[in-house]
Amino acid sequence: MRVPPDLRDHVTRPDDRVGRDWPVWPLALTAGWQCVTTPAGACATPADCPAAGWLAAQVPGTVASARRAAGRLDTAHPPRFAYDDHWYRLTLSGHGHRRLRLHGLASITEVWLDATLVLRSDSMFEAHDIDIELDGTATLALCFRSLTPALDARRTRARWRPRLVSPPTLRNVRTTLLGHMPGWCPPLQAAGPWRPVELLGGTPHAFDTVDLASRLEGSDGIVSLTLSFIDEQVPALPAQLMCGGVDAALTWRDTRTLTGSLRIPDVERWWPHTHGAARLHDVFLRLGDAHAPIELGHVGFRTIEVDRGADGEGFGLIVNGVPVFCRGACWTSADLVTLTGSPAQLDHAFALARDAGMNMLRVGGTTVYESDAFYALADRFGILIWQDFAFANFDYPADDSFTRQTTREASQFLARTRRHASLAVLCGGSEVEQQAAMFGLPPALRAQPLFTERLPALVAALRPDVPYVVNSPSGGTWPFSTRRGVTHYYGVGAYLRPLDDARRAQVRFAAECLAFANVPDDATLNGVTGTIHQHDPRWKAAVPRDPGAGWDFDDVRDHYLHTLYGVEPARLRYEDPQRYLDLSRAVLAEVMTDVFSEWRRHGASCRGALVWQFQDLRAGAGWGLVDATGRPKSVWHALARTLQPVQLLITDEGLDGLDLHLINETDTLIDAQLDIVSLRDGVQKVACASVAVTLSARSTQCLRASDCLGQFFDFTYAYRFGPRSHDVTIATLRNVSDGCVLSEAFHLPDRGVQSRCEVPMEVVLEPVGQGWQLVVEARRFARAVHVVDPHFRAAHDVFHLAPNRPQTIPLIRLDANDKTSRPQGELRAINALAPVFYG
């Protein structure tokens, strides 16, 4: 039996093996597993394990996912999985040499074959190969040991101790911080074979590794392949690499390795979906005279460069020679229980990101390296990935053992994801430099060779096409300076700054920003756990907080509810809890719209912003734009109206009135008409104008509303010459060719919500194919219209509705398996006296 010291040249498996013959591809060991939990140290070998108490377990998976499947997991109060021992077992059968590949074991693990210990692993982020000989049947056992001995054994001195993580000695153990961050996420800790376990071999042409990479040389695409087989001596069949209509012969580098490349002239490039098509090219291998080629996966071709700006202190991405405003959110997990999520969950999440106009997701250092399926979906959906290495907040050890461990981890990840065009930024980690700076350390004392030397060297060697950022945030004496490099911006948000701070801060690139306790819809609050009210302990348990702070993110939301809407949140919660929820959803939608309008405007210094966070990890008012069930919140809908490739935005310029910003990120010129109207009492026109505009490809421009109108009008009510003449200005951008609305923006000179009136609305429920839609029309301006339905959600929600213009709202079933429920609900506008019912 041979146990390699590490997984040499580990590279990715193909994304999709449906219908392929397992003797060529690895056999995934997914079924037939059992698991049992024992006290820490109670069982030294598999023979000591109890006979009873074993649960069926799916692999890849975790102890938590096995318990959930058995109906034995309370996600609100889970056991401390990281501090018990957990045993998994599976019977293997066969004859001859095999290679066992373990892609990820959380976190301190022993691997046994029958009574023989064949591997010890102390990192959940490393993959391992074990060569074995089978002669009939054998029992594979995995023991996931308690973290306690490892935390006690390595007590190296740190220069600072962040409050984020408990215990702080986790700096010494290579495991995810998910489950160990009080106030940030549920205490659901990782334990188990969270990545696939595979068996390789059994045929002369069984693949070992498939290293597929692509690059651009001028306008040509280069595809490179290095493919190795399990057997040391395989029949040296002729082989061809095929991609994009081009074939090239491969050569045998040695007795088990094929290598070669091909060139595709004038190849079609991969773009983030906001700027073009996410074009992918399938790659095939033909071995010998086989009738059908073997699909190896896909590749994309793009270039990515960093633009530091004229002063050399900015940060922005240039993709295929075109500057890209990167926008999106910070990813947490599609499913905290499995740490991976199902294919359906991942596909749903990427669809939501695309539909919201996002073109970037950041996988942060507090989480995990995501699955192969995750990066393949990013390729397909045209979503750029900002990838932190899995380091955050800590002053990490610098000893040789930790160095070797983290080098293997990073090398394996870079090799595994080498084929993915969506990987756009590689970052040393999250808030490491920030923590050191906030503890008062000068730059010379807070630097770590891990981030300044080792990781950038690995990136240069293995992914030279991807820019490297030393840390997030970084740049300047204060690494979190908003005017330099990459920042984490919480001025509007946790620091309770006014909305105009978004301009004053001169943000260059916000890798995190705009954290709020975002309220989900009623269907989620009235979910399977029973209705969650604002005074319910479950509500507060789901509201994020920083450890040791005397406030939480409910308080942050309430601050803006008070300062922007002029209401007393505590009193409103007491007197009218439903209106409190409606206004809470609406105010954060307005905040998101205003801040991103500022950052995307023509001439802004900002080149990107990622909201903290994309999805909640439990039901309630979490940071997520999407709730724990996968339903978008009001803030997602606001971003979906603000982040599109063709966009009209309004900014309030005070005494200079309103600026109208026109953005066209596509490669096509657009002839359009821009209409502006200001209304009194939500219906009476007091000012209006229409102008023809041309949106050049890949362009931004700014028009002054006053120039469009051609005369003085106090759009912003800054001059205050008498009573305010209007309560809303609506700007609409229409395509000249078909009259369709391309984008629409609203400005309210007074955000107060004390005054409500009759807002006549007509709602017609219409069947469409197998679904339903609402056709809504208001007789006067309706503000922040929210669709409430126990069985459906609105495709567009918490939206302003211009008067006398019908709008169609598709309805989406909350439960895709429910084919019988009919829509029945209400529309609530925050400026209306009463809701309007339908169904």
Automatic annotation (TrEMBL):
Residues 54-195 form the Beta-mannosidase-like galactose-binding domain. The keyword Hydrolase applies. It comes from the Bacteria. The lineage of its organism: Bacteria, Pseudomonadati, Pseudomonadota, Betaproteobacteria, Burkholderiales. It comes from Paraburkholderia sartisoli. It holds the Pfam family Glyco_hydro_2_N2. This is Beta-mannosidase. One of its GO terms (biological process) is glycoprotein catabolic process. InterPro entries: Beta-gal/glucu_dom_sf, Beta-mannosidase-like_N2, Beta-mannosidase_GH2, Galactose-bd-like_sf, GH. GO terms for molecular function: beta-mannosidase activity. Keywords: Glycosidase, Hydrolase. The keyword Nucleotide-binding does not apply.
